[in-house]
Amino acid sequence: MDEFDGYTAAYLCGGPARVVLVAVLALYERRAVRISKGARRADAVVREPGDPVEAAVLAAIPNAGRPLGQVIAEAAESAAVLAVADPLRKAGLMRGGRPTRRGRAVRRSLTAEPGPSQAGRLAALGPDGVEDARLREILQARDPKPVALPRDRRRGHRNLGSSNLSDPRFDGGDYGGGSGGGGGD
Q: Domain range holding 133?
């Protein structure tokens, strides 16, 4: 099992999405990527990848950030991530996108003894193998559903200006811009 790096073990145990998770973990541990817990939004802080898989992950994160699920889905389809399976196919551990009988046996041994590193445990066991409780919860969660904004009936556009919050400029009080000559005595 020593010839398996985190990416090949991840591909064999969980497929392309697991490979991306291992790269996200590496970027997160280096503080190159920040992931908010509530919104599950990934932001790239440093755009210096350590390898082609990390480059694919960083390329999937625009400057404004993106929900982690979308980052994983996009990066999992990249050429760099899909190329991780090539040595597994050459070794006879995968055929097409599925593990062979021998590949399943290797996968069982990897999951039985995932190793001491957090990346190795993530590769073999998925998010359940991550010791950091905050990160494990983020990786296990789904992206929140987008908020539906009310539509403007006249034009069919989203009404971004409406709010149920009061606006002190129009509530009749004297806040420096209302009627009554500029306020004050």
A: 6-140
Domain count, the chain: 1
Q: Is 64 a member of any domain?
A: yes
Q: Could you report the per-residue pLDDT of 17-74, keeping only the tens digit for each?
A: 999 999 999 999 999 999 998 888 999 999 999 999 999 999 999 999 999 999 999 9
Domain assignment present for residue 81? The answer is: yes
Q: How far is CA 141 from CA 39, 67, 126, 138, 144, in A?
A: 10, 11, 12, 5, 9
- Cα distance between residue 131 and residue 18, in whole Å: 16
Question: Would 146 be classed as within a structural domain?
Answer: no
Which regions of 10-147 does DSSP assign to beta strands (E)? Answer: 33-35, 41-44, 66-67, 94-95, 98-99
Lookup result for tokens 């999992």:
76
